[in-house]
Design brief:
about 300 residues; Rossmann fold; alpha/beta; 11 helices; four-stranded parallel β-sheet; three-stranded parallel β-sheet
Length: about 300
């Protein structure tokens, strides 16, 4: 009887330990799919994530609904991409309880401003010049920074899990450093004179600066801007004179204007790039984008 009792106690004890280990220690919410990916990599089993921003969303038009607020009710930390990508954060903060806080991951990542000296504009330079580019994740080193920021925020909210978060952060960072090396290797296949990236809107500024490209975008920061005829003609002439072989549409932007530019400039239309990060896997997105760019510019 004593032996049976001891075995039952031991089994119950082990099951308790297992359940304690598997039970999330902290509830969080994510407003952007790429932030969700980073949270999963760092948080693992200790974090329960409410995914408010889901793959396929239009990040420039999304607004949380009442149902979303209800889903976030238990989340202690609410992670956003930041850099004004989510203009609704002020209103959202007003609706939260005292135990909740919004973490803008991009806030502590170096910002890059839109500069007329660095980019060619079709939708006028005055419209976007000086604006903060919110698409910081297209520089892989910035995603490394994001991983470390998330690690610190989770460890601060869940001190008992600090070593767990640190260990997972190191693994994620090592993968990102390998990815960054891969991007640089692929880019070197393109002659420097052909490293000119023409896209629908200003989503790839961080990529271009990090990996040595000249950027041209035709619809401002959000891909919603109208293009004056004069600027459109100047852009077409610039692309023709430069001999750019390929322009790149984006999955979330209307390709009609870019198709017109391609036709009138003599450039080809490449495959669509993923600009706003509305996907569930950061590494897959980056590899796909780089492969598309390299294939298009090696023509």
């Amino acid at each position: 009887m004593q032996f049976g009792y001891a075995m039952k106690f031991h089994s119950t004890f082990l099951l308790g330990l297992l359940l304690t280990h598997l039970s999330p220690a902290i509830d969080v919410a994510s407003l952007h799919p790429l932030i969700t990916d980073a949270l999963k990599q760092v948080g693992g089993e200790r974090v329960s994530i409410v995914e408010i921003g889901k793959p396929g969303m239009n990040v420039h038009e999304f607004q949380p609904r009442a149902a979303d607020l209800k889903k976030m009710a238990k989340a202690r930390l609410i992670f956003a991409s930041g850099k004004k990508l989510e203009p609704y954060l002020g209103d959202l903060e007003d609706s939260l309880n005292d135990n909740q806080v919004i973490i803008q991951v991009g806030k502590d990542i170096p910002s890059q401003k839109i500069s007329a000296k660095d980019e060619v504009y079709a939708c006028c330079p005055a419209h976007a010049e000086g604006g903060i580019d919110p698409h910081w994740w297209h520089n892989v080193r910035n995603m490394e920074r994001a991983i470390r920021i998330i690690e610190r925020k989770l460890a601060s909210a869940d001190p008992e899990g600090k070593s767990y978060y640190v260990a997972r952060s190191k693994i994620a960072t090592a993968k990102l450093r390998n990815l960054d090396k891969w991007v640089k290797t692929q880019v070197t296949r393109i002659p420097k004179t052909k490293r000119h990236l023409v896209t629908a809107h200003a989503a790839f500024g961080y990529f271009c600066k990090a990996y040595g490209f000249k950027a041209t975008f035709v619809q401002g920061l959000s891909a919603q801007g109208k293009i004056p005829v004069k600027q459109l003609a100047e852009s077409i002439k610039s692309i023709r004179d430069t001999g750019i072989p390929t322009v790149f549409p984006e999955q979330s932007a209307n390709p009609k204007i870019l198709a017109q530019i391609a036709m009138e400039s003599g450039a080809g239309m490449g495959r669509a790039l993923i600009a706003d990060g509305s996907v569930e896997n950061y590494e897959e997105m980056t590899r796909k984008n780089v492969n598309v760019i390299v294939a298009g510019l090696l023509k």
